[in-house]
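Per reviewer request, we include the raw input and output of the structure prediction for the construct analysed in the revised manuscript.
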Amino acid sequence: MDREEYVEAVLLAVESIPPGSVATYGDIATYVGHGGPRQVGAIMREYGGGVPWWRVIRASGIPADEVGDTQLELLRGDGVRVTNGKVNLKEVRWDPDD
């Protein structure tokens, strides 16, 4: 998979996450079948502005430092419950098979 195809696949995956759900960077890499969390993060930093980037979160359930407050606000707007600055992935993790 070349870089352009990879970028497209990552962005399409992120667009597939419905409101009220989140995915980790690793979830997206697994779904796409290529790369890992760091590669997905790099794609999101560079190209993610046009997709619901806030629905992709660290595996810890804590948002990235540079977008934390904004991400949590947008997630709350999607109906995701945030407790002490953290998302409970067991409750809202995206399952692409659903």
